[in-house]
Amino acid sequence: MSSSSDKEKLQAPSSHQERSESITAASHNTSIGIDLLTPHADPSNPFAFTATQLSALVDPKNIQLLSQYGGLDGVARGLHANTHQGLCPDDTISTAVAMDSDTTKPFESSTNTNTMACRTVVFGNNTLPETKSKNIFQLMLLAFRDKTLVLLAIASVVSLVVGIYETIAVPEYDAAGNRIPGVKWVEGVAIIVAIIIVVLAGSINDFQKDKQFRKLNAKKEDRLVKATRNGCIEMISIHDVQVGDVLHLEPGEVVPADGIFIEGHNVKCDESAATGESDAVRKQDWRLCAELAAKQDPHTSIPDPFLISGSKVLEGVGTFLVTSIGVNSYHGRTMMALRTEDEMTPLQVKLNGLAGMIAKLGSIAAGLMLVALLIRYFVGFRYGVPTDKTQIVGDVMSILILVVTVIVVAVPEGLPLAVTLALAYATQRMLKDNNLVRVLASCETMGNATTVCSDKTGTLTQNKMTVVAGTFSSSFFRFRRGASSSDSESDNTHDIDQIPQDAELVHIMNEGIAVNSTAFQGKDESGQPAIVGNKTETAMLNFAAEIGSNSFENVRQQHPVEQVYPFSSERKAMATVICLSPGELYRMHVKGASEIIVGLCSSILTMDGKRQELTKEDRTRIDHVIQSYASNSLRTIAVAYRDYQHQWTTAAQGEETPYEDLIADHGLTLIGIIGIEDPLRPRVKEAVKTCQQAGVFVRMVTGDNVMTAKSIARQCGIYTTGGVVMEGPTFRNLSPYEMDAVIPRLQVLARSSPEDKRILVERLKVLGETVAVTGDGTNDAPALKLADVGFSMGVAGTEVAKEASSIILMDDNFESIVKAIMWGRCVNDAVRKFLQFQLTVNITAVILTFISGVASESQKSVLTAVQLLWVNLIMDTLAALALATDPPTEELLQRNPTPKSAPLISLKMWKMIIGQAIFQVVVTFVLLYGGILDYAPEDPALQTIVFNTFVFCQIFNEINCRRIDSSLNIFSNIHRNQFFIFVFFLCVCLQAIIVNFGGVAFQVTPIDGPSWALSIVVGLFAIPVGAVIRLIPDKVFGFLFFKPATRQRYLGENYVPASPVNPSIYLAGNDTYDRVQDGVMEFKKGTRRESATASIVIPSIVAAAPSTGAAVITSPPPAATKEHHSPN
């Protein structure tokens, strides 16, 4: 029992003089800033401390500073708080308190002296300020910064100004002499409308996504906590907690604010989610903690009085005084530090580069055209200079209009919309697949992920621990869930139902399971009664209930707890001492890692409760049992006990007996070994295999031991022949060179810490990988933030992990990651499909406009500005909708990811773009200048046929662009995309309306049936032409690429990069996996004798398992050499 009433040796400074001396002495201590000990001069703050001074108590934990503040009583006094009665919300504050003085002075506030209002003004609320959520107009401004949109905006303004001028100053007349209504300004307006549509679509989607995430977070964050206010215990919202509140601690509770321990019994907290420290930290009165800290004993775990927000209470009950809330708390500062701007994704970078390139090429083409037309125009002056200067200005403006048209045509107006639509459509559909996308561009990045570093518990496994096997007593009574009668006869293995419930061993074991546990009766996520706590302990308690044990709560009430030694990573065990008969009989129950506990035992219990010596043969058999369980993916727990007659400790009253003293003589009695299974999630093996087939290297990063990690990884298909298993401590001590050598084959990182995960992600990114990482704890946040795509757990994940992640797995399931990869590739393909379609239109239109404009006597293009607007803007927008909504297929996962260095437009795409452009240009010029239709080039009917044919070429090429690879089946799954079918027929209908009724606005004339048939048939030829282009091998164009690096990017041929990089074994172009597998097969057949030990040799750090050909790396050999060896 530890409470504030304990008479500890170290007393708080009780008088003003003592406190002043303490503060004066501390002012010379460089470890504590003088600002923390200097009384504030804020007249609006009636408290002795500022928020900063209180925050310094916890980060880092500073027992010395607490002492100088006057201890718990001094802090409570300075906060106008009562550690027993709590705050009274109706009270008012009439006096101000100073840190270095016992005297008070009247406090007058110009606003409100209510205690809660004053605390809110000085210390804030227990909420984090909402991320500076951008309003819709800010999001629109951000969307408008896209380079393509800026280019479009410039072109639209120029087009609008020139269009208005041309409409007013340069009227046009048709063949009959009638004035054509001025509609040239429509193009500029239409482009502006397109920009507005793009900006609105992107910004509204971002706004809704942000709103959805905030709503989800607000719902998850708000909860009720138990507080003492005005002497009564009540439940209050976590958002209403104030500095000075007295809150209660209970097992399973997440600490809602920073504070100082007041009193309680056996309170232990798991601060691993907040600080990364895996050991349970005991909370005791601050004076005892200060005394223990003064002793500076490095071998004992020193308790502390500080409660850290975000940590979890493992056991015990108590109260604490709140000192920091909201942004001033440990948890709040961690959350605020994660609010950083995200980097541009590879696709965004490439699209920006493409926009810049198009702007340059469009400007060059326009410049050449301007020069050519001006030269031609002024050369014509030799036949006479026009006398009307207005005519010259009008002619020059006509040339400028045509030049502007070329620039407008060159810009891919629909591209930003295609990207936005693809991402928006994908994110909405991904939510149905349990992927909540927080960062819109992350789903595009996920499509190119080359490696996934996955947690084990809860992601690959179900995190539903169940006792499935065990071995008890000296007779080695074995049980296995679901064992048959034949098993019992053959190897003494029984089903769980056959465990004798009345055996004394079973009674002792059930007693130990009940008392030596921090789990408690509560409610699960759905509100149903359940055992809540550590998953291993809940499994053991459920097992005890299953074999007939009394309620564990009743067992705990019958046996008062004398001392608890919580689980720690050093001792790998937990122990609880209970009183069976006061002053006569005490019993210590111990459970923990099997190897450790068995080594501390000198005897073993028989079924009837008698102790028997643990022989060497018994230890050998037990070791075999442990290895057998571990190799079957079971977590093994040993349970043991020890009885003490009359007195179990010689420690003085109030002092703890070290755990090490109780087990120093290795006198425990072994009860048995329990095997606990965390079953794999359904279909996780298939999901891992799918990832590997998709060229994504899956790594398992877990805190489990090597044996269990290997077994689970092997079941999942992650651990394969040729792979490497390494322990975290070994990995983090490698040099960068050694890491780079081992990482390409590293499949399992066992006994790893979050820092190991962060280092692994960092090195993978250095090696050029696109990395996806899963994480659930607060200390996983750095790795999640560092990764290209961070996946946090929607069920088990902390708020910090979610804030640091890009995508939240709503079901914590690895299978959802596979769906994210599939959707990411779908998004990338959608953008590339549209790019292939758009650039074909743009290149063809620019060439037609350029050549027909230069060739025309009147310097007019065969396609008018309004016709080009229909093709280049409206049709492209519809095509973006059609191509962006193609649903993902399993086929997407049968290819390797696209490297970051890969070009945005592949060679296959360039073949199709240029091939289709050549086909369309040739067809158009044959129709226009070939004389096959008996029309003059300037005839409106011919120009309408040319326009109609050009449009149908685009409509049928849209089907062609559904594939960006060499597959000939362009109709695959077309029936699943209803948008595409709708857009296709909509474009056909609109084109028919334009040709028949567009008249003056589109400068077209109705055409007859044969002309319609000609346009459609010629357009239909885009499909067979596309098939022919796909049949042309890529290597035919190899002569175009002189540099090896460029050949590699476009043709995929092997070359030696400037700086060698170790590629993942599943990636294309790396035959390591195949070579290792072949070598192992040769070795097994006996055809390969030169290497009988390792299939992989990494410098100075590898020990290999010949039977599997896989390396298991646990720790460096004593005499590590720096020689470099080549892989076998």
Automatic annotation (TrEMBL):
Pfam family, one: Cation_ATPase_N
MF term (GO), any: ATP binding
Domain of life: Eukaryota
Cellular compartments per GO CC: plasma membrane; vacuolar membrane
CDD domains on file: P-type_ATPase_Ca_PMCA-like (cd02081)
P-type ATPase A domain sequence ranges: 223-336
Region (Disordered): 1-25
Cited Gene3D superfamilies: Calcium-transporting ATPase, cytoplasmic domain N (3.40.1110.10), Calcium-transporting ATPase, cytoplasmic transduction domain A (2.70.150.10), Calcium-transporting ATPase, transmembrane domain (1.20.1110.10), HAD superfamily/HAD-like (3.40.50.1000)
Membrane topology category: Multi-pass membrane protein
TM regions (residue ranges): 148-165, 185-205, 358-379, 399-426, 834-855, 909-929, 979-1000, 1012-1032
UniProt domain Cation-transporting P-type ATPase C-terminal: residue ranges: 861-1032
Localization annotation: Membrane; Vacuole membrane
Major localization listed first in the record, in broad terms: membrane
Annotated catalysed reactions: Ca(2+)(in) + ATP + H2O = Ca(2+)(out) + ADP + phosphate + H(+)
E.C. numbers: 7.2.2.10
Basic and acidic residues bias: start-end ranges: 1-21
Entry keyword set: ATP-binding, Calcium, Calcium transport, Ion transport, Magnesium, Membrane, Metal-binding, Nucleotide-binding, Translocase, Transmembrane, Transmembrane helix, Transport, Vacuole
Cation-transporting P-type ATPase N-terminal domain ranges (all copies): 118-159
Enzyme class per UniProt: translocase
NCBIfam families listed in its UniProt record: ATPase-IIB_Ca, ATPase_P-type
Family label: Belongs to the cation transport ATPase (P-type) (TC 3.A.3) family.
Function recorded in the entry: Catalyzes the hydrolysis of ATP coupled with the transport of calcium.
Designated name of the protein: Calcium-transporting ATPase
Species per Swiss-Prot/TrEMBL record: Lichtheimia ramosa
